[in-house]
Design a protein that fits this description.
This protein is α/β, with parallel strands linked by helices. It has a single domain, classed as Carbon-nitrogen hydrolase (Nitrilase/N-carbamoyl-D-aminoacid amidohydrolase, 4-Layer Sandwich), CATH 3.60.110.10. It has ten helices and 13 strands. Strands 1, 2, 3, 4, 5, 6, 7, 8, 9, 10, 11, 12 and 13 form a 13-stranded mixed beta sheet that branches. Strand 1, helix 1 and strand 2 form a beta-alpha-beta unit. The protein starts with a strand and ends in a 7-residue tail after the last helix.
Amino acid sequence: MKVATAAYDLDWLDCWAQYEDKLEGWVSQAARQGAELLVFPEYGAMELSTLDGADVAGDLERSIRAVSDRMVDVQNLHTRLAKTYKTYILGASAPVVDGTGRPVNRAAFYAPDGSFDHQDKQIMTRFEREDWDIAPGGPLKLFDTALGKIGVLICYDSEFPLLGRALSEADLILAPSCTEALSGYWRVRIGAMSRALENQCVTVMASLVGNNEWSEAVDMNTGTGGVFGPPDKGFPATGVLAEGTLNQPGWTYADVDLSAIAEVRADGHVLNRTHWEEQAARVESVTISAL
């Protein structure tokens, strides 16, 4: 399959039609290149807050609520695009008020047949905890698709090995991200590459890019798209299948061969995924040695 992962920049929107045109432009461009799976970044939906004006877009809590209020329309748009262009789409994540509690950070996953589901972020960053008051969402899911088994670890989640291990059956793990600084981008990238190494799978990282003075939430963003695999037989020695240009908006494309994933898991030079369980006995027997 061919995957397309976004370095996505936000726009000021004066009307809903602008957002529809923008998303259709992105999706149609990737579809023309033959992409069957499209990945948008974390918090890419925050540009929708501009539809309610500068006062709302510039206020953290009000912008969260404004974006959440538009998610039904967002789902309808993405459902149509996935069906029209016959692609799977991981939509940009958004703060979603689900019930009476605090918002969760949710990325919806759309299939070409019009069906969709979602993945919520599991572990919040300090900014999400201390400033946004975003809550952990529902459980991790493994999506069984015509393209293979696909999991999603939203940004910070990709930095936690046990979350990755819970998705060890996934052929691909998608890692939509939103990072302010270069160090944040590299934390997520290192996490994504580590999950590809441990699970002997392919990870796909999307990034929010660009600066937005109108927003308190996503004012500064650094990153690019990247697709990573285990540095082993059938994959590049660096583990990097594709990477974009830092902070340059656009798609990064990569061809992913599911048979290569199956082969490296069965007969790689190393077998990290198979040997994972051997760690348990070893860590239980740690002793303190005074020198």
